[in-house]
Amino acid sequence: VYWSDWASYSLDSSNKRTGKQHHRVLRENGHHIMGVHVYHPVLRQRGIQNPCWDNPCDHICVLSGDSYMCLCRLGYKLAANKHSCAVTKDFSFVIVAEEDLLYKIDLNRVGAPVPVTLPVSNLGMISALAFDWSNQTLHYSDNRHSILSAINVNSFEQWTVHNHIGSVSGIDFNVTHQLLYWVDADK
User: Least buried of 85, 92, 153, 171, by fewest C-beta within 10 Å?
Assistant: First the structure.
């Protein structure tokens, strides 16, 4: 396996099965190596069919003999049609905000928790969070843009809930009545 190491400005490799036989392939003085592309003649053969190329799966497609099998990301389970993924209802997680980033930490994982960055953008400066478990929606306040917004944690669809709100210091969501409450520190 090959990777670019930004700490040492180098391109390194090691045996992908053992992690051993590490060696430095190339070193750039003060310049980050931004990407690696692997070329192998076998990858250029014409007429090879890969059932995953059509990507019939919601999340992950893996080869299985001369066919394929669908898998789901953590926190999801495979639906009866064996292609779609649905949220696992008993899945426990924590959402953590760090300025303009959101992390999801799986509490069902064995071993040390691993924060996974949620693939969302334009978050601004997050100051407070509230979760609506009934719709799998994370509500958050963005004090940089003075808005309240929401993100569906399954589809990662984002939308603005309320504009021109001032400086929010706390929010809460009433699941029963589907109401969002917030505290404006400016008022």
Answer: 92
Alpha carbon distance 147, 179 (integer Å): 16
Query: Are 35 and 12 contacting, i.e. CB atoms less than 8 angstroms apart?
Result: no
Return all residues near 53 (Cβ < 8 A) that are at least 6 apart. Answer: none
Q: What is the C-alpha separation between 11 and 20, in angstroms, rounded?
A: 16
111 Cβ neighbours under 8 A, 6+ residues apart: none
- Do the Cβ atoms of 67 and 51 come closer than 8 Å? yes
Cα 145 versus chain centre, distance: 23
- The model carries a pTM of 0.54
Closest CA to 181 of 135, 165, 120: 165
Calculate the CA 151 to chain-centre distance.
Answer: 13
Average pLDDT taken over every residue of the chain = 84
